[in-house]
Amino acid sequence: MSAASSSAKRLAIISQSLYLANLLLLPGICFLVLVWFFLRFKHQRNWARIHLYRSLQLSLLAGALLVIVPLIYMMFSASMQLSLMMVILYFVTMHAALVLLGMLNLSRAMAKKLPIF
């Protein structure tokens, strides 16, 4: 394995790991580190850059789906008890789906393949 290929694989794995850490471990802090990685490595010309872009895009999408959509639903709902139950169910389901997608993309980064999304 060449040095360039090894560093590309490492960047792809770090990008996808930061996405998962943003969902599971330290939301916000890992997102800021991911943005820093994006600003630092956005000019690379290899397949790892695609993992970097996709992990940042998925982080932004996850933020919208897990924060903004439930807030909008709660604001426009008539029954607080029903809407709270629906928001909890939605959040748990969507969070699990996003984590599974991140795990799939991480395994694809380890196998030197392009991400699914």
How would you summarize what this structure contains?
With 117 residues, the protein is an all-alpha fold.
Structure description:
This protein is mainly alpha-helical. It is 81% helix and 0% strand. The protein is built from 4 helices and no strands. Helix 1 runs parallel beside helix 3, helix 2 runs antiparallel to helix 3 and helix 3 packs antiparallel against helix 4.
Helix percentage: over 70%
Overall geometric form:
elongated
Number of β-strand runs? 0
Total count of helical runs of at least 4 residues: 4
Largest sheet: none
Give average pLDDT, whole number: 94
What pattern of helices and strands is seen along the backbone?
HHHH
Content-based structural category: mainly alpha
Oligomer designation: single chain
Rg from C-alpha positions?
16 Å
Distance between the termini: 26 Å
Low-confidence stretches: none
Strand content: under 5%
Ordered list of secondary-structure elements with their pairings:
Layout: H1 3-24, H2 29-41, H3 47-75, H4 80-110
Fill in the keyword field for this structure:
mainly alpha
